[in-house]
Amino acid sequence: xxxxxxxxxxxxxxxxxxxxxxxxxxxxxxxxxxxxxxxxxxxxxxxxxxxxxxxxxxxxxxxxxxxxxxxxxxxxxxxxxxxxxxxxxxxxxxxxxxxxxxxxxxxxxxxxxxxxxxxxxxxxxxxxxxxxxxxxxxxxxxxxxxxxxxxxxxxxxxxxxxxxxxxxxxxxxxxxxxxxxxxxxxxxxxxxxxxxxxxxxxxxxxxxxxxxxxxxxxxxxxxxxxxxxxxxxxxxxxxxxxxxxxxxxxxxxxxxxxxxxxxxxxxxxxxxxxxxxxxxxxxxxxxxxxxxxxxxxxxxxxxxxxxxxxxxxxxxxxxxxxxxxxxxxxxxxxxxxxxxxxxxxxxxxxxxxxxxxxxxxxxxxxxxxxxxxxxxxxxxxxxxxxxxxxxxxxxxxxxxxxxxxxxxxxxxxxxxxxxxx
Length: 421
Fold this sequence. Notes:
Elements: H1 21-28, H2 31-48, H3 66-78, H4 81-84, H5 99-124, H6 135-148, H7 161-175, E1 185-186, H8 188-203, H9 217-241, E2 245-246, H10 261-273, H11 287-293, H12 298-309, H13 315-318, H14 320-325, H15 331-347, H16 350-353
Parallel strand pairs: 1-2
Helix pairs in contact: 2-9, 2-10, 2-15, 3-5, 3-6, 3-9, 5-6, 5-7, 7-8, 10-12, 10-15, 11-12
């Protein structure tokens, strides 16, 4: 994975580069796509590595680099925003409470402050990237991030030109990571924008690394599980309280209507745990396991969350792919397949990645087909309305989607995971 210096600069605001199949072909061959997949794989491998670190949800800052502790604090503050911006009780739409537009406007106002503080905390400890930090240091960094997410800051208020350019880029990625304020939806493209945000921070040394040395396995594992747990907490809150529509064809690009990566990281985490505990893919069907292990193990937490939302439907019917995956014999096979799924059904789908923006740290190495910046499609992917960028209901389906088979349990034909044999 290419690295970047904290002194790197950008010359223009991030913009779209993917408009048609030609641009998509260029993206698939690009270093930025390679870097994104490489970081995702490295985060997963760190979770599956046997180390003396085990994620403890009661102490989520353990082993983090201070910059990541600051980001964790910002995500914690973001969970409080919905108290100030409650859903509109008079809204009648099945999907998409209009109060989410106000929530997202706050994100736009405060994303610069969040990115700036994370960057500054990273710079403060740049001389000791591999040091072990005590609890007081990490708590202080987390509080700085928490306060940053409660503060509006304009990029023009940043004095240093390099910092201004970097924050402008980082905040653009963060702004795309929590759903669309016009379509009122959320999907794996937004999740991937959060991953782009993390990739950019990693390149800038904010994971605790240098240009020559990557983060330690222990620190990468802590970052993955802690940051994604905090990110999931925010996303689940806005998805349920604001009733965000699953992006894509009824959420088929997300294993739980919305997400993919937490399942991959969670499966990797269980690869390491499998040697000591009798936890197999079939364990998702045990209410006791989900109750006792769902806080510690991300995969079980994701399954528990799905079952809490879809109590009225049998699991094999509400989540056919996850049900099918539970028949696999090992967590390593589950993890390997989920990484393939993420690459094939997210990063290789233009309808998803066309919303990416590119800057200097996460950079496109091709000339886009459209020279002038154009807006991404604003219609929901499910609607089939609008310009040529919109999809019909059948065009938007993932290859394994078969809605006609879900009418009754007797008619249901379980969806097969692509790697299940």
